[in-house]
Amino acid sequence: MSDGHNPQHDPEQGPQHDPQQGPQRPADTNPYQQAASGQDFPATQGPGSPNPYGSTDPYGQRPAWGTTAPDRTEAFARPGGVTTAERPPKRRRTGLAAAVVATSLLVGGGAGIGGAAFWDAVHDDTATASPSSQVSTSTVSNPTRPPAADGSVESVAQKVLPSVVKIDVRGQEGEASGSGIILTADGTILTNNHVVEMAENGGSLRVSFDDGTSATAQILGTDPLTDTAVIKAQDVSGLTPATIGKSANLGVGEGVVAIGSPFGLDATVTSGIVSALNRPVNVGSDDQGNSTTYPAIQTDAAINPGNSGGPLVDMTGAVIGINSSIRTASSGSGLSGEPQSGSIGLGFAIPIDEVMPIVDQMAKGETPTHARLGIQVGDPQSSDQTGALVRDVTAGSTAEKAGLTSGDVITKVDDHQVTGADSLVATIRSYRPGDSVSVTWTTSGGKEQNATLVLDSDATSTNG
Questions:
Q1: DSSP characters for 244-282?
Q2: Cα separation of 340 and 333, whole Å?
Q3: Disulfide-capable partner of 233 in 48, 59, 187, 401 (CB 3.0 to 4.6 Å)?
Q4: What residues are annotated to the active site?
Q5: pLDDT digits (tens, 9 = 90+) for 332-388
Q6: Whole-angstrom Cα distance, residue 26 to residue 139?
Q7: 3 state DSSP class of 180
Q8: Helix/strand/coil (H, E, C) string of 294-332?
């Protein structure tokens, strides 16, 4: 395709790549960077390449983790942390990379002594001071600290911090860190796949808690397609599970708070607003060419490498997203002219509603399943066309049964406008296998058609 996408990719899979050749999209064309380490990650990940219930439950079930937020009428940087290579830095595009924060503390003269006490300490002598040389000081007020106001960033931080962890990862390629969200009192933790993937082949995980203690952890399951993972801290109890909210209730402009360990600085709190919803974000692909694409929550709350896997919460302290990626400046904006890898106010979180069923599967040791249409798509070749161009239809799929054929352009799924291939992938990923959806498309002859389809599952699909 003309925009750098692979000409064919499945909306449930995303861009299709030849596993032997790696991703076809040039690494420098994708402005998104997953947020789990200090490395700038290209947006396309392939083999060997770097870089969400309440009373209204979209899946007809209650959340398995934490507590449930009350109903409300309300509305990538792979942030990882300090990373040190254990051997000469052969940077892995899918791994977590090096970022070192050096902090200097400059203590001014007398700052450690303070006020009148400092004066007496450095000017004391045996002679009696004359009245004119005595120093008079005023009483220092020491009022009692008032409690944090409900709905303030301070109150949110106090509630959520005990439910957020720092995850230190060690693997063959070095060390890195990310963040995680406590789901159960006995140590089930939600994070990003790209945070823990370094530890999958003989590596190790250590989780640090808000009270200063730590424990080793094991991976229960990973899902590259949604960039999520579930791990279990060993021999722990009495932890504080996070409250799981409803991302479907979010509104643009609503206040949010991000918590995590940017650049290894644990328990860091930033705040902002919801800048946009359902933003299609494609951060790469798995080793089979299936894209990691999701309908992201966009926020201007500062998210940096190391924040990945940490929570984005609403102003009640309920988790509504998983901080996962950022967009970085494509060209140098500083005096040095070097590209900027930190936050520029464009952060992205995975909506919690869409991934909780998958989280439940991983925690049970099951293979995660995803909804699909059974087609391969690309972007339209004509600039005056908007939608996802059908390039291939799998025999026996729900798409074939509905009458979709190669050359059709899908323009809408339910009430979601489809603007391109990534948009269709992200939209379908927000559903579950067996869900019924209304699909609208334009045929190659220019005729608009519509049909209701029951979504297939990749657990049974023969199309990748």
A1: E--GGG--TT-EEEEEE-GGG--SEEEEEEEEEEEEEEE
A2: 7
A3: 187
A4: 194, 227, 308
A5: 444 444 555 677 889 999 999 999 999 999 999 999 999 999 999 999 988 788 999
A6: 65
A7: strand
A8: EEEEEECCCCCCCCCCCEEEECCCCEEEEEEEEECCCCC
